[in-house]
Amino acid sequence: MTARLIDGRALARRMRNELRDDVAAYTAERGAPPCMVAIGSAADPAAETYVTLKLDAARNVGIRFDPVLLAADAKTDDAVRAVRRAADDSATHGIFVQYPLPGIDAKACNAEIPVAKDIDCANPETLERLRAGEDVFPAASAVAIMALLEDGGIDVVGRRVFVGAGGPAIGEPLIVLLERAGAEVVRIRASDGRDMLRDALGSSSIVVFPAGIPRGLDPDWLPEGGVVVDGGYFGARRSDEVLNAALPRLAAYVPSRGGVGPVTVDVLLRHTLEAARASR
Fold it and tell me: Looking at residue 240, which CATH number applies to its domain?
């Protein structure tokens, strides 16, 4: 068996081409482009890199992107004020808090993002509304994972889908989307032990690790003929050895490099456009 690659870069290119046309039409109609504000920290080079990637992507499609890089010694109050300024600015349509934020309470920042401008489901209120079936923006990575599965021809209806640790930021919104689509979602707590983890993985036909495949996971635990999505950031403190070793037994896979990440950026931009369209 040769596992089929589900290519995130290729999907992102197609999404970006469509988005570019839609942004141009919006800008022509409204007289100004949609605007996203990203708040990050200059204390962490990774945050600056991620912000720059989003800046380049936004410029490519015609979206205004205003980065706010907080000083290395910034406190939570400084970050909260930056979020509030963007929230109060009628010209800002989408707000995104870029991790990591060393020394800053990210939860306090996320709680200040208005639901209408919360393009990544960062505010707990947005997540609660998502669970209630309201029309809010799910986490961009969760939407990206669903888009990749669809693009790869993977139907989740009636399928058993294992969702690994991802926390409320990604995992919880993804579960909502999967269940809405008709999947049976399986989760295992850390306290459940390795035997339960092995059984849950082996009995699932689709396995998603929103935060990346854990080091030390036995590749033989991944389902024969299954689909695996590695949602981890390439270069994070983890390895790709598990997925690479499992490829001969899989039907399809989404790797950490060129997988969820590129599509997530385009989803954030799409959400910004949709938020702009809904604004008055």
Answer: 3.40.50.720
d(CA 85, CA 9): 34
User: Does the predicted model carry a pTM greater than 0.70?
Assistant: yes
The two three-digit tokens of residue 273, written as one number: 């456009």
210: in domain? yes
Q: Which domain holds residue 144?
A: 140-261
Q: Tell me the pLDDT tens digit for each residue of 105-141.
A: 999 999 999 999 999 999 999 999 999 999 999 999 9
Q: Give the whole-angstrom CA distance, residue 120 versus residue 97.
A: 9
Residues 70, 180, single domain; the answer is no
Residue 130 within a domain? no
Position 190 scores a pLDDT of 66
- Pick from 150, 147, 125: nearest CA to 136: 125
Based on the number of CB atoms within 10 Å of its own CB, is 261 exposed (0-12), middle (13-18) or buried (19 or more)? buried
Residue 18 forms part of a structural domain? no
Q: What angle do CA 94, 95, 97 make, to 5 degrees?
A: 150
Polymer length in residues for the chain: 280
Angle, helices 167-180 vs 124-131, to 10°: value is 10
Residues 82, 180 within the same domain: no
d(CA 257, CA 128): 31
